[in-house]
UniProtKB/TrEMBL annotation, chain A:
Compartments in which it is found: Cell membrane
Transmembrane domains' residue ranges: 20-40, 72-89, 101-119, 125-144, 156-175, 204-226, 247-273, 313-332
Annotated InterPro entries: ABC_BtuC-like, ABC_transptr_permease_BtuC
UniProt-recorded name of the protein: Iron chelate uptake ABC transporter family permease subunit
TrEMBL record, chain B:
SMART domains the record matches: AAA
Name of the protein in its database record: ABC transporter ATP-binding protein
GO-annotated molecular function: ATP binding
The keyword ATP-binding belongs to this UniProt entry's keyword annotation: yes
Subcellular location as annotated: Cell membrane
Length: 337, 275
């Protein structure tokens, strides 16, 4: 994934830091994964988990491979998708506020999914498909509203906030008009939850990411130039509109796919890239690092939500609680600089 | 260099019209950029200087007319291919937060690198040379945001040098610099022109410096070329009156022998002077 655009010049310290950050994040992902597979009503040791993974038969095998692994793997995929999506949006629109959850992509997905559930009475796969469709629809709508030659991130963000409110009011209307139990189910989904994880869901989301993530990697060098401003990027031989269009399109698809699988897990897409860029500290878009930060955020929050809190809550509640301070920190820092 | 011999041209504007929506800013400009010389574009605010430069640099597509590089329309050539020959430093480039001087300058190598071609010694040499030329070698590992305005402008010029363009366009490169740093930067560009033969086209506001550093001076007025030629022939009182609405005396610069514009305002004119 890390098509690092620029080989730094006699800067071993920077290369070292980049490598260390990526290695550290991968280690964190694996450590959280280990915890996620160990914890639960039936506690396992590291040895039992590893044994189950390499195929030892026994009760641990069923618990790890059938019950816990799908949830963790889905968390990994969702985190990757949200993390990379946020980085694509924020870098290509040059605005840290421009993440899919601020721009209304997640809200559009929610509105479509909730409408399917409450009006159509369908759930499961129909809801998933509707969510993906809703996210893409918002993406198209945003293009239509905010797309002008030399479109600015500002314009996109403002249009997106409007679209988000619109989608929010659709959801609100549907919820107030529906049965309490249906509304409860819709709310859980909208909070963002890995509760409906299964190997089938992983088998759908996995291949989608397998297609989208390499495409995102191809955009890395273009995004790197886009950060210098549209004029400088163009004068270095990259068409800024093409890079930005591609990034926004991929970002919409990734966020919609992840939302379809787990609901709009709050703040992951928003916070992952700023955290990753802060860790890297070298002014690169940091797509791979953002994806990894997204994975850590989702999977660690899910461990907290499932096992460390007195009651079992959807993962979106924990990521939201963690993400809000990040938002405030970002806004405060922006004002001072 | 003898300004009398007509220089060959690689970059040529033919009846170029440029505008934003309905609003036409550049209204039919013909311009032959002399190869291997320094061309400076001057004009009043809103005369279309920066817009013309954007048109010449393939940042804006002409609504009518065309800009040709080596006889081929700029928009008929792939952008990366153009970028290997033609570099442009815009007025407000953005430095990503946390980026170092060397890393930013290295971005200039983009047009020379294929989609999967790795960084090689040619790239490293170009960056090292660009850093050395701009006296930035010592600062290579510093973060760009830590630098002063003058140093930062040198970084952007270094990035343009790393691109190794044969023609370099610059949009008001001396804005926000104090006089000493302005002269310093223009000297650097003049050296680049003299030593590497890089064709330089820049928009400048300061007329005395424009006249001193230009081989070829282009005066724009309301989106058209009012005059073009050697500064000594172009800059006179009549030209200034028309282009800027400014009453002025034109003296000879005692340092360079180029025209020196002394404005005559409504106030502060010495009693007893003929003005």
């Amino acid at each position: 994934m890390s098509v690092v655009a620029i080989a730094p010049l006699r800067l071993p310290a920077r290369v070292l830091r980049r490598t260390a950050v990526h290695a550290g994040l991968v280690a964190a992902v694996l450590a959280v994964g280990c915890l996620a597979l160990m914890l639960g009503d039936y506690r396992l040791t590291v040895g039992q988990v590893l044994g189950a993974l390499v195929g030892d038969p026994g009760p641990a095998h069923f618990v790890v491979v059938e019950l816990r692994a799908p949830r963790w793997v889905l968390g990994v995929l969702v985190g990757l998708a949200f993390g990379v999506s946020g980085a694509l949006f924020q870098t290509s629109l040059r605005n840290p506020l421009a993440s899919p959850d601020v721009l209304g992509v997640s809200q559009g997905a929610s509105a479509a999914a909730v409408a399917t559930l409450l009006v159509g009475g369908a759930s499961g796969w129909a809801m998933t498909a509707a969510a993906a469709g809703g996210g893409v629809l918002v993406g198209v709508l945003l293009y239509a509203v905010a797309w002008k030659q030399g479109t600015t991130g500002q314009r996109f963000v403002l249009s997106g906030i409007g679209v988000a409110y619109l989608a929010g009011s659709v959801v609100g209307y549907l919820l107030t008009r529906s049965d309490v139990r249906d509304a409860q189910a819709a709310l859980t989904w909208m909070t963002g939850s890995l509760g409906q994880s299964s190997w089938q869901l992983v088998q759908v989301l996995g291949p989608v990411l397998l297609v989208l993530l390499p495409l995102a990697a191809l955009l890395a060098r273009g995004l790197d130039l886009l950060q210098l401003g549209d004029d400088r990027a163009a004068s270095l031989g990259r068409r800024p509109e093409v890079v930005r269009g591609g990034a926004v399109l991929l970002g919409v698809l990734l966020a919609s796919a992840a939302t379809a699988a787990a609901g709009p897990v709050a703040f992951v897409a928003f916070a992952a890239a700023p955290i990753a860029r802060r860790l890297l500290g070298d002014g690169t878009p940091g797509l791979a690092a953002s994806g990894l930060v997204g994975v850590v955020l989702v999977t660690a929050s899910d461990v907290v939500a499932q096992h460390l809190l007195p009651v079992d809550v959807p993962v979106g509640i924990v990521t939201g609680a963690l993400g809000a301070p990040v938002l405030i920190w970002l806004l405060a820092r922006r004002r001072t600089s | 260099m003898n300004p009398q011999t007509p220089a060959p041209t690689r970059l040529r504007a033919r009846g170029v019209h440029l505008g934003y929506g309905e609003h036409t800013v550049v209204d039919g400009v013909d311009l032959d950029v002399p190869t291997g010389r320094v061309t400076v574009i001057v004009g009043a605010n809103g005369s279309g200087k920066s817009t013309l430069l954007r048109g010449l640099g393939r940042l804006m597509r002409p609504t009518r007319g065309s800009v040709e590089l080596d006889g081929v329309d700029l928009y008929r050539r792939p952008p990366r291919e153009v970028a290997r020959v033609l570099g442009l430093l815009p007025q407000h480039p953005i430095a990503p937060e946390g980026i170092t001087v060397a890393a930013l300058v290295a971005r200039g190598r983009h047009p020379h690198r294929g989609a999967f071609r790795r960084w090689d010694s040619t790239d490293a040499d170009a960056v090292a040379t660009a850093l050395a030329r701009t006296d930035l070698a010592e600062l290579a590992d510093r973060r760009v945001e830590e630098l002063s305005g003058g140093q930062r402008q040198r970084v952007w010029v270094a990035m343009a040098l790393a691109q190794e363009p044969e023609l370099l366009l610059l949009d008001e490169p001396t804005t926000y610099l104090d006089l000493a740093h302005q002269v310093d930067l223009l000297d650097l560009l003049a050296e680049l022109n003299a030593e590497r033969g890089t064709t330089v086209v820049m928009v400048l506001h300061e007329l005395a410096l424009a006249a001193r550093y230009a081989d070829h001076l282009v005066v724009l007025h309301r989106g058209r070329v009012l005059r073009a030629g050697p500064p000594g022939e172009v800059l006179d009182a009549a030209c200034l009156a028309e282009a800027f609405g400014l009453e002025a005396r034109v003296l000879e610069d005692p340092v360079s022998g180029t025209p020196l514009v002394v404005p005559i305002g409504r106030r502060r004119v010495r009693i007893g002077s003929p003005y």
